[in-house]
Design brief:
elongated, about 425 residues, Alpha-Beta Plaits, nine-stranded mixed beta sheet, Aminopeptidase
Length: about 425
């Protein structure tokens, strides 16, 4: 490792400048941002990021699903390649730290490592790439983790391009419109590191400042169509109504009841319901539910999905409607690379930061990348555990502490010539 007076520290002013600037794109005025994938605000944030890359000498690469990469070759063409980053798209009226923190901390860490090497005169042994993945959130286009999953080969590109938002605009059309339908060959890194806010209060409650995620939960995202019959809400007799929303309500209640009967941990939700024609004076003719089942164990997910499927006919019959599952998107549970977990913990110890291990229930791009290369997602605390909301907040000192851990991790990997087996032992 390149030596300094004590552990290396990031350029905190650079990080804060990057974090403050990216928070301007799609700012809602109440502390949050509205920057769903491939909107004008998202385009503006990505344009800014690409400008930052270019002015610092990074090669900007945009692949054919709209993932953006800034690559800097510090060690020559055949050196190991370390990828860091996250995503710049947000939830509708979401928080400014989710995703964007991982991108800005990544750029600040790589730049700080680069500056340290220049200062000491030692040549880095790895090259680096900062990633901004397309449509991580899955808010405008489903499924989530879309760009990283296409990159990892677990989602077909044509399928991804055909996804549409609620107005019928496709991923393909919006990539073309925003100028992010690229054709570059994407980088092929040796590992991936993502930093993120926790989105829970476990770290805050324990006093931990750093938490590598050891496991990622699996998820089944189930789309259910309920078909009734459109009619007037006034004169249509109650016994003659075929109310799609009433049928949807019975199904939503069942999704919650699954958690009571599961033999192990199960989280469920129905957080989106599309109603047609969505008029207060019309008995709804159709409703589309977006149900999510999340669990750390595959058997629990299989059980929950089977229970939901088998219950649909009776639930639909109660409302005199039809109901069917039209699609299921499954994300397997798994473990992150144990060497990267250990490396993160060693880095936190070097900096004197209290740490703990956690599972991630939410999906992250690191989950998608974990299918093909050694990967990890590392959390910093969230105040009151808030995420996906305008008042999502992480203290500046905690953000900087996380970026310092990231810098330590990439410095150790670099000193070990890219070897994860040796990086935790490099001093």
């Amino acid at each position: 490792m390149i030596k300094s007076d004590g552990p290396l520290r990031i350029n905190a002013e650079l990080f804060k400048e990057l974090m403050e600037k990216v928070s301007e794109f799609g700012a809602t005025g109440d502390g949050g941002v509205h920057r769903p994938a491939l909107t004008d605000a998202h385009k503006a944030a990505r344009d800014w990021l690409c400008t930052e890359f270019r002015k610092r000498g990074y090669r900007v690469l945009i692949d054919n699903i709209g993932n953006v990469f800034g690559q800097i070759d510090l060690a020559g063409p055949d050196a190991p390649l370390v990828m860091v980053g996250s995503h710049l798209d947000s939830q509708p009226h979401g928080g400014r730290f989710d995703g964007a923190y991982g991108v800005t901390a990544a750029l600040a860490a790589v730049e700080s490592w680069r500056d340290s090497a220049k200062h000491t005169g030692e040549r880095p042994r790895c090259n680096f790439v900062v990633a901004d993945w397309m449509n991580e959130e899955g808010a405008r286009f489903q499924p989530s983790l879309l760009g990283s999953s296409v990159y990892a080969g677990t989602v077909d590109r044509d399928f991804a391009l055909s996804r549409t938002d609620m107005t019928g605009l496709s991923v393909e059309a919006e990539l073309q419109r925003t100028g992010y339908m690229g054709s570059d060959t994407p980088p092929q890194p040796d590992c991936f590191i993502e930093f993120h806010i926790e989105g829970d209060d476990k770290m805050e409650a324990s006093g931990a400042k750093i938490a590598p995620f050891v496991r990622h939960w699996g998820a089944s995202k189930v789309r259910i169509e309920v078909t009734g019959e459109q009619n007037h809400t006034g004169p249509t007799p109650m016994e003659d109504r075929h109310d799609a929303v009433l049928g949807a309500a019975y199904i939503i209640a069942k999704v919650k009841e699954l958690t009571n009967d599961a033999t192990d941990t199960l989280y469920t939700s129905v957080a989106r319901l599309d109603v047609f024609p969505n008029s207060p004076n019309i008995v709804p003719g159709k409703a589309v539910l977006f149900a999510e089942l999340r669990a750390p164990e595959l058997d629990v997910l299989k059980w929950a999905e089977a229970e939901l499927r088998s219950s649909l006919p009776a639930l639909a019959a109660r409302a005199s409607v039809g109901a069917e599952i039209v699609s299921v998107e499954r994300r397997p549970a798994g473990k992150f690379d144990a060497r990267l977990v250990a490396l993160c913990e060693r880095a936190a110890d070097d900096l004197g930061l209290q740490r703990m291990q956690l599972d991630t229930i939410a999906g992250h791009d690191g989950v998608a990348l974990n299918a093909i290369i050694p990967s990890i997602v590392v959390a910093v605390p969230s105040v009151n555990g808030v995420i996906h909301r305008y008042d999502e907040f992480t203290a500046s000192d905690d953000l900087v502490a996380g970026a310092n851990v990231l810098l330590q991790m990439i410095a150790r990997i670099d000193a070990a010539h890219g070897s994860l087996d040796d990086a935790g032992e490099t001093a």
